[in-house]
Amino acid sequence: MSARVIAFGTALLPPLLLVGAWQIASSTGLFPPQILVSPADVAGTIAELVRNGELGSHLGDSLFRLFWGFGIGALAGLAFGTALALSRLFEALFQPLFQAARQVPILAFIPMLVLLLGIEEGFKITVVAVAAFFPVALATFDGVRGIPKGWLEVARVYRTPFPSLLVRILIPATVPPVLTGLRLGLTRAWLVLVAAELLAADNGIGQMMEMGRQLFRIDVVLAGVIVSGLIGFALDRGVKLFERRYTRWRVA
Amino acid sequence: MTAQPRIQPQSAATDAPASGALTLSALSKRFAIEGRALPVLDGIDLSVRPGEFVSIVGASGCGKSTLLRLIVGLDTDYSGEIRLDGKRITGTSLDRGIVFQDHRLFPWMTLEENIGLALLNSEIPKEQRARIVCEHIALVNLTGFEKAYPHQLSGGMAQRAAIARALVTEPTLLLLDEPLGALDALTRVHVQTELQRIWMRQRSTVLMVTHDVEEALYLGDRVIVMAPNPGRIRRIVDVDLPHPRDRSSPVLHRLRDEILAELTGAPDPENLVRFPAQEPR
Predict the structure, then answer these.
(1) For B194-221, what is each residue's pLDDT tens digit?
(2) Of A102, A109, A167, A181, which is most buried by a Cβ count within 10 Å?
(3) Does residue B15 surpass a pLDDT of 70?
(4) Could you tell me whether strands B53-58 and B232-238 are parallel, antiparallel, or unpaired per DSSP bridges?
(5) Could you tell me which residue ranges the ABC transmembrane type-1 domain spans (chain A) (predicted)?
(6) Domain that holds residue B182
(7) 3-class secondary-structure state, position A61
(8) Residues B134, B138, B140, B143: is their CA dihedral positive or negative?
């Protein structure tokens, strides 16, 4: 228990030092206060944004997009990755295209998607789905392909019926890599969503930051930075906890 | 040379089982490597009596593991014949169990789930399966570890669990592919003793591949010495000692020295004696 407290404190030290340095930099006037707002002011802004419901409303809009975009992208990635791993024909057809397309930065798709879909919800959900799709598809492909041949041989020796093979062997064997892919996909989706909202949106956490920039409200911009960072961190941690819980059989 | 195989009295048992007779005739296997056919097994003739324990030793690359894969039915691309109780082997079947060098237990299943997996396609009624699994866990002395996951077991325990899984279907033929190869010396000796005890109770036919000559002699009624390139039977040694055996028996030591000399001696293909199928029956 005390070891955990120490570990927690150790992890907290660098962020605290960073905030301290930030406070010093702003209070000594190293940068003009219009450009570098002090951490205390940013905290005040966050409190204000929470109180007047603005932050909650933007965050709700962003998380709604994340939920749908990630859900669609992850499901498509799971299906695509599985098909790619199991079917020779599917692999021959799509593997090169997939490998090339996943090298394109997701943000590079944005101008094209704006032209095709406008800047409405459909566009943002699509961007998020595309961002989630690639890591999930890749992890699923690797996970299914990476099932050790020895395990499949055991199933052949005992003539395990196909439904049992699927439920008891194939799915559990792919859960760990797929969960890692989902986690990567989720954090990637969040990053891309905030970026897309910065570029084109009427609401959402990214749009809140963009409005702050246009109005020269650097405190609002920094509040957005902190909140989106915390959300990304929480998403990553959440899936990690889930991973640990459901793959407890891995060396403890 | 003790290479005159003779008809041997069933070593430990008078109650020889009726099934589990394995016959290999003119068994050959080739791998196609870069378009060239590479022979790995060439003209193997062997017949194993029901309930017999046969060990196979040989240099690496002599096709001993390939031989087991053919017999268990994981690889059906061969020429010649493999028959178990007169029936030609065409694929895997629950009447043949196998233990691999790596235990191949599924890490997300408990010990009893791992062993129970082997019974999913068996004809044993569902309500009896739990009891049978339990009995086999007891057979390999792992009672109390039913709910343990593989990573919580030591190497020797995991290998014993794999043996229980292979035996739970009550196969007439048990194949062991270097089952103790990954264990440390002390654990090996322990599991060897266990294997002997289990086999004496179970009395299924056993074919064990190993690279440990002492292990082969300690457990085997006969030891098949194989030669590589292509894999073939070089010599068959009868170990005419009753089970359970005493490791310090002078017979075992003399046979060990002979086999080791043969395996490590200068490989001169000209002088390589090829024993034809000298089989007791």
Answers:
(1) 889 889 888 899 999 998 999 999 999 9
(2) A181
(3) no
(4) unpaired
(5) 59-239
(6) 22-95+171-271
(7) helix
(8) positive
Using the structure block, give the residue that is written with the tokens 């490998």: A99
> Do A150 and B118 count as a contact with CB atoms less than 8 A apart?
no
Kindly tell me if the per-residue pLDDT of B170 is higher than 60: yes
CB contact under 8 A, A160 and B104: no
Measure A152 CA to nearest chain B CA, in Å: 10
Encode pLDDT of A3-28 as tens digits: 888 888 888 899 899 989 888 888 88
pLDDT exceeds cutoff 50 at B8? no
How distant is the Cα of A219 from the closest Cα of chain B, in angstroms?
49
Q: In the predicted model, what is the mean pLDDT of chain A?
A: 89
pLDDT tens digits, one per residue of A28-37: 878 887 778 8
Torsion angle, alpha carbons of B216, B218, B224, B225, to 10 = 60
Interface test with B, best of A149, A152, A158 (most B CBs within 10 A): A158
**Any CB–CB contact under 8 A between B92 and chain A?**
yes
Calpha distance A189→A66 (Å, rounded): 7
Residue B104 lies in a domain: no
Q: A37-246 adopts what CATH topology?
A: MetI-like fold (1.10.3720)
Distance (Å, rounded) from C-alpha B281 to C-alpha B103? Answer: 35
Preferred mutation among B104, B115, B120, B126 to probe A, highest tally of A CBs within 10 A? B120
Domain count for chain B, please give it: 1
The answer to whether B126 faces chain A, any CB pair under 8 Å, is no
DSSP state of B27: E
The minimal CB distance from A156 to the residues B74, B97, B120 is found for B74
Round to whole Å and give the CA distance between B191 and B56: 18
Cα nearest neighbour of A147 on chain B = B106
* Any A CB within 8 A of B98 CB: yes
Tell me how far CA of residue A139 lies from CA of A184, A191, B90, in angstroms: 9, 19, 36
CB of A152 within 8 Å of a chain B CB? The answer is: no
> Distance (Å) from the C-alpha of residue B129 to the closest C-alpha of chain A?
15
> Considering the domain boundaries, does residue B108 fall inside one?
no
Task: Please give the ipTM for the structure prediction.
Answer: 0.81
Burial class (CB in 10 A: 0-12, 13-18, 19+), A111: exposed
